[in-house]
Amino acid sequence: MVLQVLYNSRNVKLRIVQLGALLLIACSLQAAELAHLRNGFTIRHVSRQMDGSNVRLFLDESKSNYIDIANAEITGYELDESAPNATSGAPSTPVSVASGTPVASIEDHVRSFSEKQQIDPEFVASVIRQESRFNPKAVSPKGARGLMQLMPGTAQTLGVKDLFDPAANIDGGTRYLHQLFEQYHGDTVKALAAYNAGPQRVDRYKGVPPYRETQQYVANIIRDYNRHKAAQQPAKNQVQAKKSVRKSAESR
Predict the structure, then answer these.
(1) Which residues pair with 78 in a beta bridge?
(2) pLDDT tier, 81 (very low <50, low <70, confident <90, very high otherwise)
(3) Is 131 annotated in the active site?
(4) Long-range contacts of the stretch 79-88 (C-beta < 8 A, 24+)
(5) What per-residue confidence (pLDDT) applies to 69?
(6) Residues 142 and 218 occupy one common structural domain
(7) Are residues 150 and 219 in the same domain?
(8) pLDDT classification of 108: cutoffs 50, 70, 90
(9) Are residues 107 and 229 in the same domain?
(10) Confidence at residue 73, expressed as pLDDT on a 0 to 100 scale
(11) By residue range, what is the domain housing residue 175?
(12) Residue in 81, 131, 182, 250 annotated catalytic
């Protein structure tokens, strides 16, 4: 199943934007930091760049994985004492936000379980970024837990026993997303709204409920998904062009 996701231009405080859209002032860090958010979450990052009322947190040295957050949502920063110093010469292994779990293992789980449920892995990654910022130990004020922020009742229905286990959480979360896509006949917006607010509220309002949180939730994920897919397209076009050139050369 290929997800047809439309771009949503709703303006939100916490947003992920395209590279080059902002004039950034670099602020280098000698070691990894922890950014503390008003909602209780902590985001580990290796560097950050400021732009007026926003800050971009880079989650690894490649700077291809980042989050843009309004400065007003951050209560403070502190040095991550558990991280190796950037000047020590020790190899840097990307880790998930506020955890010690290698990102690669989480990415592998995302790819494996997404493909099993016939959902674009990049879409599931966008859901996880919105839900937990890739923090396997995240707990929301309402009690949702883990990477895909499953409620205990939903997890029990899905047969997920350990919500803080990345594999089990992603397995359950992708199965739940698949169920919602089936229920709403592939309607991405309704499926996301139901994942956030519950199917009963989506059915009651025949679409996205009039809740600001849910409306922002849907907009954030769709925007993030579209940004990542757009970033991948030039690379795909380049590969396709090389294949075309090769075939043309072989036919001569």
Answers:
(1) 34
(2) low
(3) yes
(4) 79/31, 79/32, 79/33, 79/34, 80/31, 80/32, 80/33, 80/34, 80/44, 83/31, 83/32, 83/44, 84/31, 85/30, 85/31, 86/29, 86/30, 86/31, 86/32, 86/46, 87/30
(5) 81
(6) yes
(7) yes
(8) very high
(9) yes
(10) 83
(11) 102-233
(12) 131
